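Inputs:
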Amino acid sequence: MQETTANQVAANATSSFTEHLQRQRPELLPFNQLPATALTAQAAAPLQVPHGTTIVALSYAGGVLMAGDRRATMGNVIASRHIEKVFPADQYSVLGIAGTAGIALDITRLFQVELEHYEKIEGTLLSLDGKANRLGAMIRSNLPMAMQGLAAVPLFAGFDRPAGVGRLFSYDVTGGRYEEQEHHSVGSGSMFARGALKKLWRPNLSEQDAVAVAVEALYDAADDDSATGGPDPIRQLWPVVYIVNRTGAVRVPERELAAVAGTIIESRAAAQREA
Amino acid sequence: MTQQFYVSPEQLMKDRADFARKGIARGRSVVVISCRDGIALVAENPSPSLHKIGEIYDKIAFAAVGKYNEFESLRQAGVRYADVRGYSYDREDVTARGLASVYAQSLGAVFTAEQKPFEVELAVAEVGRTRDGDHLYRLTFDGSIADEPGFVVMGGQADKVAEAVEAGWQGELDFAGAIRLALAGLVADKETATLPPSAVEVAVLDRGSESGRGTRRAFRRLDAADVVALLAEEN
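Outputs:
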């Protein structure tokens, strides 16, 4: 086909920041940077880098909520007690990523710019399904790194404004996107968190109850998984919790979380039970 | 074979400049005003979707007059420049001065090298923590750049509009005052006394966006209902 000017203009018009980087500055992308030696080094010991751990998300009466613990581990060492793994993606959605921390943080940053870039170029917000698909494509691009043991797996939650409901999406390392009902969790402590959520979650939870359920699920994950950090009253460290509803995504204030975590610790102490 | 006539460089540039000026003078005006609450951008624009004012980055906005396809391509290039810069360095490293200088270079290159110059005039505005920290840059079709204190008026009858705005401008205006002043300026070249809110496009760069709305993105578009509500507040 003849390359007309109109064809060229149409081919160059993109609202995607990732696509723009791929064409103009591919070296800035968090993926696409696998050194040639890494492919042959597969048999060697896995790279020692910080890993983020447990993220939980659940729906409640007004929308969805996402919470993450504050620990990053490197082998048997605690790499960070302060790391934050849940972020606002844009005004109406949040994401949390478990896995290799460096890659997770860069994918988050790229995803945030991707959504804002689309909004500025097009003048409208991307649909929630559109956002979920873009995130899936980014995780898929990271597959070569994931094969080397540097995987990052997100959990995505947002408020679908046309439908008026909060929705949850989980992913696998190949970028597969799955819509989840009620609640979901990812990361090393996710099995224990999921068990807790199954018992604690009820339909139509209020906002306060939903925060308490999420913090308690993380407490249970930290109880059994050494890579998940529980609430830390000594350092005054609490999970990061974001609520997404019709008015947008907001972070739950620290003092509220301190009170919720305090109540859970007290009730567990009062019960005097082993498990 | 036809004879190639000699045209002096002076004449060539003058012809190009006259061509661009004619194109810009046909358009309707845009007013950008720095005030106490931030920066107000007001454009006469009957279309609710083909914008003349746009968000570039956290604290930076763009306003233009002239040919839509030309300034729209510049706006998109500006968004790409700012996003790439902010992504590769840090968000606070994106400044209006850097963006304006890239715009100046592109406009200058198009003016001298392309078949026809861009028939556009741009304003790049950056809101600071205080009014002294605000920056307003005006860019013309040939790549000239000017740092304007207080306000910028561009487009059709810019002289008359600028006169009206200058008479009423002061740094202590709030958004309602600045928008009212811009609307009064925009009718200076017309017979009617007021513009309906549906005939203007209004946006603001909010100085207190972090404390007031909890977002670092200062840009906010005001629709006709918002403008009516804001102007009614004061009366």
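Remarks. DSSP finds nine helices and 13 strands in chain A. The mean pLDDT of chain A is 89.
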